[in-house]
Amino acid sequence: MAGMADQRLLGERKRFRKERPYGFVAKPATRADGSVDMRRWQCRIPGPAKTAWAEGLYPLEVVFGDNYPSEPPVCSFPAGFFHPNVYPGGRVCLSLLSSDSDLGGQWAPSITLTQLLKGIQELLSTPNVYSPAQDAACKLLKSDPAKYEKAVAAQAKRYPQEQPGDD
């Protein structure tokens, strides 16, 4: 299976370079020895336009296992990322990233890296309050949406759109 994962990831890299959506960044990580780690990608997702998220370019690590694409990758924002569907450690909670169909998982091997990143971008501005991973963010969104939006806007300033090396 590992060979299948590697082949698919090479194809994903080629496809993303050719069809990269505006503002998105996705590239394999570089190991300490300078080699490329095709199983760990460093990505950045632009905040959706006309939302409190819009001013940010959010770092996301995507880790692909040996059973990819049969199993979804693990996607994580930095620890402490403020969002109702992001665990305190940074892991994204999204049905698209789950293969357990009994629990509403929507992962399919045909999902591309671009589709995955766009799905996470959409999640930023349309959180699922019925499946919270972070109580504080979820409670604030429900109880005081204006204050929630202010917290999101403050977080966006920590991840500005203009960042070096965004090629």
UniProtKB/TrEMBL annotation:
Organism: Edaphochlamys debaryana
Entry annotation: catalytic residues: C93 (glycyl thioester intermediate)
PANTHER family in the record: UBIQUITIN-CONJUGATING ENZYME E2
Domain UBC core: 4-161
Protein name, UniProt field: UBC core domain-containing protein
Keywords from the named record: ATP-binding, Nucleotide-binding, Transferase, Ubl conjugation pathway
Family: Belongs to the ubiquitin-conjugating enzyme family.
Leader peptide range in chain numbering: none
Molecular functions (GO terms): ATP binding; transferase activity
